[in-house]
């Protein structure tokens, strides 16, 4: 009786030969997998971009709303500053109050606290953000830059105005800006 092992041990019966790889066939398999992976990546990035854009819109809308409210209240704030200055000067100077001097001082104070330019720039920056958010190009750095400018304008408004209701809106603007920054941090 001859075992199977003895048969295989005989020379020339079983020859193990490494198959020669076919580079063309291997490339076709690899390129197909690569194409599928790249298409999937592009699809996922588009979907992620769409979701991020959807998250941006409400915060941007809230910033625009707050900017409009602040713009509408700017005249009221200026009038309150004038009245406050007039009361202080009346208290300090009483009968020596010069109405021309009061008007000059009030004009200087109102000029220093006037935020209309900053509010106008915020409006323009919001429009820039809207335009950028609909772009299909990589725009993470551009969005960062616009958000830095927006932060600068909001901080300037906050330093100019001492009105409590205005300050609350500036804080609300900063909260929305911070939320935008969190979203933009994920954009390439």
Features:
0% strand; single chain; 6 helices; mainly alpha; 188 residues
Structural commentary:
- The protein has six helices and no strands.
- The protein is mainly alpha-helical and 188 residues long.
- Helix 2 (23-93) runs antiparallel to helix 6 and helix 5 runs antiparallel to helix 6.
- The chain starts with a helix and ends with a helix.
- The mean pLDDT is 85.
Quick one: overall form? rod-shaped
Q: What class do helices, strands and sheet pairing give?
A: mainly alpha
Low-confidence blocks of residues: none
Largest sheet: none
Which percent band covers the strand fraction?
Answer: under 5%
Secondary-structure map:
Blueprint lengths: L3 H6 L13 H71 L5 H15 L2 H18 L6 H21 L3 H21 L4
Compact overview of the structure:
The protein is mostly helical and 188 residues long. It contains six helices and no strands.
């Amino acid at each position: 009786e001859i075992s199977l092992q003895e048969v295989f041990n005989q020379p020339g019966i079983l020859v193990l030969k490494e198959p020669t790889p076919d580079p063309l066939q291997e490339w076709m398999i690899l390129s197909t997998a690569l194409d599928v992976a790249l298409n999937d990546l592009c699809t996922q990035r588009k979907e992620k971009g769409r979701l991020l854009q959807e998250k941006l819109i409400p915060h941007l809308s809230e910033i625009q709303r707050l900017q409009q409210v602040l713009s509408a209240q700017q005249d009221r704030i200026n009038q309150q500053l004038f009245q406050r200055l007039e009361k202080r000067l009346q208290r300090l100077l009483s009968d020596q109050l010069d109405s021309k001097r009061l008007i000059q001082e009030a004009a200087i104070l109102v000029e220093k606290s006037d935020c209309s330019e900053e509010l106008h720039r915020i409006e323009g920056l919001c429009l820039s953000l809207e335009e950028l958010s609909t772009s299909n190009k990589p725009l993470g750095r551009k969005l960062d830059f616009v958000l830095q400018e927006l932060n600068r304008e909001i901080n300037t408004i906050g330093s100019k105005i001492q009105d409590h209701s205005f300050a609350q809106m500036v804080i609300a603007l900063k909260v929305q800006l911070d939320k935008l920054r969190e979203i933009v941090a994920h954009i390439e």
